[in-house]
Amino acid sequence: MSESSDAFATAPHSRGEIRFHIAGGVINGVVWIAALVWLVVRWQTVAPRWPWLVLAILAGIYAADLVSGLLHWAFDTWFDEDIAFLRRMVVQVREHHVYPNRIFRYHFLHDAGTLSWLALAVAGPAIFIAIPFDAGAVVLGALVFDILLVGMLSFHKIGHRARQPRWIRVLQKSRLMISAAHHSQHHGGNHDFNYCLINGWADHTLGRAGFFRALEWAIARATGAQPRRNDHEWLARFDYLAVRPEA
Fold first, then answer.
1. Could you tell me the pTM of the whole model?
2. Could you tell me the residue ranges of all domains in the chain?
3. Which letter does DSSP use for residue 60 in this model?
């Protein structure tokens, strides 16, 4: 077996990991459907006026894009494979920077299982706090956020496909969905910008304003950690592979 295959190898998902993924998807799905049913049943009472309706949807989209960027930034910038419970995700991220198209090997169900827990951690409290106050706009925004974050890595895969169905190309040209042109800039540089994976709205706003660099400065100053140290070590190790055709 080659060095590249050995380096990126991870153990098969354990039964515990599979149960964790299933539980995340089921629990998050139940909360999402219950909140949607509540919103539909109570719509006449809790429906926001149209400016707030539009704002809730846009806020949910933007929040999902920003959180997708924060997760991507965190794994690109700080974590390493020696952290046992993060090893699988860290190795996949490092492999992705060397062999970008290997992302298509990973199944949606495993992606969605973990992301369901993260989406639930944000959307769940917002929904449970909003419902007693009949805050329909908050529930709607949380539902939009949740489903987009769960699909975050599917959007990421779209950002790596050169050929897309027409309806996806329309969404990409409208900047409602991440495009290959936008995401390729992340891979064409130092992997230090264009982190967001839903549509890039947060890249064009907070990212361009220096949000991620400010976070890095604050964390580096507080901890002494060097941003992207681990990623640079992997890229240096496989530099000769990075310029070869995809394996």
1. 0.91
2. 15-242
3. H
